[in-house]
Design goal:
With about 475 residues, the chain is an alpha+beta fold. It is built from 17 helices and 15 strands. The chain folds into two domains: about 5-165, Creatine Amidinohydrolase, Chain A, domain 1; about 170-460, Creatine Amidinohydrolase. α1 (about 5-20) packs across α8 and α12 (about 300-315) packs across α13 (about 325-330).
């Protein structure tokens, strides 16, 4: 949690942007795992954390724009709670710590909202993403749960996206803490990448690091020797010599800010010449993207330039053919690079995407490109100092996709399918760093996890000692 002044300033700035009305910021509730008292690990709503900072369930924040008051609705604990949880600070004490001086029990919240609606005041809320919050908002506002998203406040969405997109020094420090944990996770995974080790052993150990140093992982760990599956959460295989293991994993700091890194590791510690050829193309694409990242540049243009690096490298290997610019314009590169270059990162690993990804990654100037592969680019708009983004190009050989394109002769003028078939079973390679856009360019967040092939091989080899 940051200083109370931080949260006061954030709420004040939001009031100025919205102008009038009542802003509803519900916190999250406990979520039962298999019966009410046995719950999943609690994760507070990120918007509530950003404006109210309290990492406790059962709270609801209200920002009254017209009266210039902030309110916190929650129930004080009772003796039964104290028996199981120990003494807890009162709601008023919790509220004071984040600069809120008006509190009330949760059963008073409905009256506040009802008075505002009867007075004809605008009630602003964000699109809810959890069923319990949907039900609560539906009851409070008299809107069917299936229609809540269409009544969500676009003014509030745009205002908060503008605020949260620009990370301040406190936030960057939290992200750096998450990056330091992520570094340890990935180096540990590299050292363990030996034949006979199971994917589950490695995933379990690095997730333990995330829990021992912070609030756990920032998303479910992707760790697999079948890297052609982009989001492979299946950790049941035993590593085989000569395979490539993708590890896409990140940590969440105790302040709930994320890191998100990916490295691709040769099992046993040595890239084959064929693997090294593809790896170096992805590394060149990663480095190119970082060199182009600076204020005023659209991330959509950085993505397309990265695609050209990939297409050019694959053409040199004989996997692609024809004019590189024409191939990228046609989307031929997406057979190998079928996802976007990166996304925003902060309190969420895909920052603010619960508001609607289109509102976070695009604007009136930059719109998505409706083309396979590039359509998955989650961030396209112009970069600004303070943005924290991921940079994660990749090359994959997906058997079903190759078969489909060859059968339907999709982009056949740019693809050498006979050569591509030789790579079925190769897997995939992805390399991802976390980047802060600065006033003059960009800088990597955290110490860069070993990425040059000889560095990676050396780390894997050190795990045998």
């Amino acid at each position: 949690m940051f200083s109370k002044e931080t949260y006061i300033q954030r709420r004040s700035f939001l009031r100025q942007k919205i102008g009038s009305g009542l802003i509803l910021i519900p916190g999250n509730q406990e979520s039962p795992m298999n019966y009410p008292e046995n719950t999943y690990h609690f994760r507070q709503d990120s918007t509530f954390l950003y404006f109210f900072g309290l990492d406790l369930s059962g709270m609801f924040g209200v920002i009254d724009v017209d009266s210039n008051h902030d309110l916190l609705y929650a129930n004080d604990i009772e003796i039964e709670d104290i028996i199981w949880m120990g003494p807890q600070k009162s709601v008023a004490e919790q509220a004071f710590s984040v600069g809120v001086d008006i509190t009330a029990p949760m059963d008073k919240l409905g009256q506040t909202i009802e008075r505002a609606i009867k007075a004809g005041r605008k009630v602003h809320f964000l699109p809810p993403y959890r069923a319990d919050n949907m039900i609560q908002l539906s009851s409070l506002l008299g809107i069917k749960t299936c229609k809540l998203k269409q009544y969500a406040s676009m003014a509030l969405i745009h205002a908060i996206v503008a605020m949260r997109s620009l990370k301040d020094a406190e936030e960057i420090a939290e992200i750096e803490r998450a990056c330091a944990i992520g570094y340890e996770m990935h180096v540990t995974a590299m050292k363990m990448a030996q034949p006979g080790i199971t994917e589950q052993q490695i995933a379990g150990l690095i997730e333990g690091i995330a829990l021992s140093k912070g609030a756990g992982t920032s998303f479910p760990t992707i760790l697999t020797q079948n890297g052609e599956t982009l989001h492979n959460h299946h950790h049941s295989f035993t590593l085989q010599s000569g395979r490539l293991m993708i590890v896409d994993a990140g940590a969440e700091s105790n302040g709930h800010y994320a890191s998100d890194f990916t490295r691709t590791i040769p099992v046993g510690g040595k890239f084959s010449p064929k693997q090294l050829d593809i790896y170096n193309i992805v590394l060149a694409a990663n480095n190119k993207a970082f060199s182009l990242t600076k204020p005023g540049v659209t991330y959509q243009s950085v993505h397309l330039e990265t695609a050209r690096v990939i297409a050019s490298g694959l053409k040199e290997l004989g996997l692609m053919k024809g004019d590189v610019d024409e191939a990228v314009a046609s989307g031929a590169h997406a057979l190998f690079f079928p996802h976007g270059l990166g996304h925003m990162m902060g309190l969420d690993v895909h920052d603010m995407e619960d508001y609607g990804q289109i509102h976070v990654g695009y604007d009136d100037e930059i719109r998505p490109i409706d083309q396979f592969g590039t359509a998955y680019l989650r961030l396209g708009r112009r970069l600004q100092p303070g943005f924290v983004i991921t940079n994660e190009p990749g090359i994959y050989f997906i058997p079903a996709l190759i078969e489909k394109w060859e059968k339907e002769q999709i982009n056949a003028g740019f693809i050498n399918f006979a050569k591509v078939r030789d790579y079925i079973g190769f897997g995939g390679i992805r390399l991802e760093d976390d980047t802060l856009v600065t006033e003059t360019g960009a800088r990597l967040l955290g110490n860069r996890i070993p990425i040059n092939p000889e560095e990676v091989e050396a780390v894997v080899a050190s795990g045998l000692k």
